[in-house]
Amino acid sequence: MEHLTRAAREFIPWFGQMQDAYLFMLTKSDNVDDILNLAHNGHKIIAWSMNNATISQKFEIGAPSFERRIIAARKVQEAGYRLRIRLDPIVPFSGWEEQYARTMDEIFKRISPETVTLGTLRFEEGFYRMRNALFSKGTEAAQYLDDMEPMFPPKLFPGAKRPKSGKYSFTEEKRSEIFNFVIKEIRKYSNCPIALCKESASVWNRLGLPLSECRCVCQLDSVDMSTKMQSGADFAS
């Protein structure tokens, strides 16, 4: 809504004058033409939520297409903005390996993100328990939901009447398989830092990703998640 609010045209130059503050924006929008000539001075980070073009067309209803997002991301990178990518949620539909390999090729041949964050398809517990009411068995989305399980052990939080399981997703083995494939594809083009979004420490360890240097797109630099893991936390990023 930048063409209506003009908010970014106010905030970006303001952050550009700051010594110790940065403006972070995560978006699917391609409405970037009005911010290309602003004095951001490197204090503005734009991260695009990307996905495979087929998945985007089927499930990201109303959002700009993958192609339009890539064009917008290239524009802001050419304008000197810091650019990052979030590939989330990765959906292992039939033929997903070939399709996501093509997605990585298209991304890295056209833009150079400084970091990439990955995530798999996942749902909050309440939303997952309502899946049969929200998705009929005839929809394409339903086939990805039945085999999901809690990502973390149930935990009783203060004030709660029963333990909460958190998000539901594929098994750790399946998530690790997905991430491992996509990471290998990224490494064909770039050595940029890679992070996982709200993922278990055990999956990080399976993939050999350093919890002590988590570099999610939403962080300015790195964060040491290993201390949280040692203190009993189950997830990182």
How would you describe this structure to a colleague?
This protein starts with a helix and ends with a strand. The radius of gyration is 19 Å and the shape is globular. The longest helix has 15 residues. The strands form three sheets. It has a five-stranded parallel β-sheet, with helices on one face. A two-stranded antiparallel ribbon has the order 5-6. Strands 8-9 form a two-stranded antiparallel ribbon. The mean pLDDT is 90. With 237 residues, the chain is α/β, with parallel strands linked by helices. The protein has two domains: 187 residues, pyruvate-formate lyase- activating enzyme (Alpha-Beta Horseshoe), CATH 3.80.30; 46 residues, no CATH class. β3, α5 and β4 form a beta-alpha-beta unit.
Record field, number of beta strands = 9
- Numbering strands along the chain, what is their spatial order in the largest sheet? 1-2-3-4-7
**Main beta-sheet strand count, sense and barrel state:** 5 strands, parallel
Give the H and E element order. HHEEHHEHEHHEEHEEHHE
Number of folding domains?
Answer: 2
Under CATH, the topology of the largest domain can be stated as pyruvate-formate lyase- activating enzyme
Strand % is 15-25%
Shape: globular
Features:
about 240 residues, alpha/beta, pyruvate-formate lyase- activating enzyme, 2 domains, two-stranded antiparallel ribbon, 10 helices, about 15% strand
Write the layout of secondary structure elements.
Layout: H1 2-5, H2 7-16, E1 23-27, E2 44-50, H3 53-59, H4 66-78, E3 82-90, H5 96-110, E4 116-120, H6 125-129, H7 131-134, E5 149-150, E6 168-169, H8 172-186, E7 194-196, E8 199-200, H9 201-207, H10 226-230, E9 235-236
Helix pairs in contact: 5-8, 8-9
